[in-house]
Design brief:
Helix 2 runs antiparallel to helix 3. Strand 3 and strand 4 form a beta hairpin. It is built from 24 helices and 18 strands. The strands form 4 sheets. It has a 9-stranded antiparallel β-sheet with strand order 2-1-11-10-9-8-7-6-5, with helices on both faces. Strands 12-15-14-13 form a 4-stranded parallel β-sheet, sandwiched between helices. A 3-stranded parallel β-sheet has the order 16-17-18. It is an alpha/beta fold.
Length: 565
């Protein structure tokens, strides 16, 4: 994707109801095109909308920079955070200043200053980040948190009976998350919690003890974080659009014609991943969708996989897409027999979509594909793709807004996804063709001179004498046979335009057309016959008596050759 995020839709919890903005019968460019959102922001009685965008303006790691014209520029390692802070600015909740200990915002013309007590950083395992701030005016301590829905909704405040408060609101939120995901939007849940000073003091003491531990420090710290991130009040949901890069659908379609299969590995929700897969030609409505979502994989997962394999084997020509969630992968990785069944299903599917996976699981999935004998290429543009890129046979990093981590860790670096087309179809094909020739040619030239020496040895009665002087032997690899590889590295058996317009020719590399047992044997035979031919020419050029001699003594011929040398 472009990693240029745009705030499109949102849901705000107003206490008695959950209201969506930017969503409905009318087509809105974004939530801010919806008049109802502006009415909610101007409501001075119910300040739910203001609190929602206050959370967006406080819960982040964005650094503001004031420009000469008075405007602010916001920078963050995460494009998602930039988009949320920009959305808060449009809602009149502007971030003015932020450092490690202090943050100042301007909400509806009023400045608010907060002391940052603690930032509970985001990680791929936590799938959420929190910030604990203290209002310098009222001394109130508040925790603001944003993260994946499965991490936030399970931590909402409970009532006395033990059920989630406002179950109806949670159901509405879940429905909104599914609807937003069906548009291919990335969703986050936003929540908050009022923290007593005594509770925060206890939390700080436990955190200090956890950070001093030498063993299992990270696990212990996360447990302390988890104690604070409980009994939350849901503020709402954000939905962000991340547009595809140019030529992504056409590039995927071209590479598919070359016989390449695609696996999409992402941390997004299943519905979001499926929508993106449709938009980039990985999946179409004409393909059968096999879904192994969390609700299905928690029980009798082996039976589900075996039944799925039987269906796929019964009709192998049917185009299928396999959608697998993170809980399914957990069971696959834990049981060795499930891996084999899963890989058989993947081979019979045209596309595999892996959703809700962590960076470590991305690498595990690539390793799983390698175990089946597949040649893998992993391409990504962010730091969370580094493990996956390094695990694959070939790693390609895209230089993007998320930094240079992926590009630096990869074997190859490209500027855009569509550059992969030329990298594989043109440079990959030519590289394979040249490597195949030069590697076999290296064996050929060495075998040929060895066979000449071996033939001479039979005529010299294996005396150990060399047919060539030392200068000729030294010059053989440098001058006589070294020039051809130098020029052949620029050889092109097809023009680049032909390879791109006819991606089917890439199958020549997959079928090992230029380098296999047959081609190597032909080079071997060529070395033998040419060695014999060169030997005969040498014999005929040195001694005419070899042909005309009546006695035809091998010893006489050998003696004449030695005398001539």
């Amino acid at each position: 994707t472009e990693n240029k995020m745009a705030f499109k839709k949102c849901l705000i919890n107003h206490g008695d109801s959950n209201v969506r903005y930017g969503d409905g019968d009318e087509e809105f460019e974004s939530a801010f095109s919806d008049p109802a959102l502006h009415q909610a922001l101007n409501n001075q009685i119910n300040k739910s909308a203001i609190n929602f965008f206050r959370a967006l303006a406080l819960c982040h790691t964005v650094i503001p920079r004031k420009l000469k014209n008075g405007e602010f520029e916001y920078r963050s390692p995460s494009p998602d955070e930039e988009a949320l802070v920009q959305a808060a600015v449009r809602a009149d909740a502007k971030l003015l200043e932020r450092n490690n200990n202090f943050v100042k915002i301007l909400i509806q013309g009023k400045e608010e200053s907060y002391e940052i007590l603690k930032v509970l950083e985001f990680s791929s395992d936590r799938k959420r980040m929190s910030v604990v701030v203290k209002d310098l005016k009222t001394s109130e301590i508040t925790l603001y948190i944003k993260g994946a829905d499965d991490m936030i909704l399970t931590r909402l405040r409970k009532d006395k009976e033990g059920s989630t408060k406002t179950d109806h609101d949670v159901e509405q939120t879940t429905k909104a998350l599914e609807d937003f995901s069906s548009f291919g939007l990335r969703t986050l849940c936003i929540a908050s919690k009022s923290v007593k000073a005594e509770d925060f003091k206890i939390f700080s003491e436990h955190l200090q003890l956890a950070e001093k531990k030498l063993n299992e420090r990270e696990e212990t710290v996360e447990k302390v974080y988890d104690l604070l991130e409980q009994n939350l009040n849901l503020l709402g949901v954000t939905a962000i659009e991340d547009k595809l890069q140019i030529h992504v659908p056409s590039t995927i379609a071209t590479l598919r014609k070359a016989g390449i299969k695609f696996w999409m590995i992402t941390g997004d929700k299943g519905q979001t991943a499926l929508k993106i897969a449709i938009s980039c030609n990985l999946h179409s409505t004409r393909q059968e969708l096999i879904s192994l979502e969390p609700q299905k994989v928690m029980s009798k997962f082996k039976d589900i996989l075996e039944n799925t394999l039987k269906i796929c084997e019964k009709n192998p020509e049917t185009r299928r897409t396999l959608l697998v969630g993170v809980y399914g992968f957990r069971q696959i990785f834990e049981h060795e027999n499930l891996k084999k069944i899963f890989l058989k299903i993947c081979v019979l599917c045209e596309c595999v979509i892996c959703c809700r996976v962590t960076p470590l699981q991305k690498a595990q999935i690539v390793h799983l594909a390698k175990q089946s004998g597949m040649r893998t290429l992993a391409i990504g543009d962010g730091g969370n793709d580094v493990n996956m890129i390094q695990e694959a046979h070939v790693g390609v990093g895209i230089e993007g807004r998320e930094g240079q981590q992926a590009a630096r860790a990869a074997d190859y670096s490209v500027g855009k996804f569509f550059h992969l087309e030329r990298l594989m179809l043109v440079h990959g094909h030519h590289s394979y063709h040249r490597t195949a020739f030069i590697s076999q040619y290296s064996f050929y030239k060495s075998l040929m001179i060895c066979f000449i020496q071996l033939t001479f040895a039979t005529f010299s009665l294996f005396s150990g004498a060399s047919h060539f002087n030392s200068l000729s032997l030294m010059s053989y690899n440098v001058f006589y046979t070294g020039l051809l590889p130098c020029f052949y590295v620029f050889d092109k058996n097809y023009e680049p335009e032909t390879l791109i317009s006819s991606p089917e020719k890439y199958s020549l590399t997959q079928k090992h057309t230029f380098l296999n047992k047959k081609t190597f044997f032909l080079w071997f035979i060529r070395a033998i016959f040419q060695a014999l031919g060169i030997w005969v020419i040498i014999i005929l050029s040195i001694s005419f008596e070899f042909i005309g001699a009546q006695e035809g003594s091998i010893a006489q011929v050998t003696a004449k050759i030695k005398v001539n040398q």
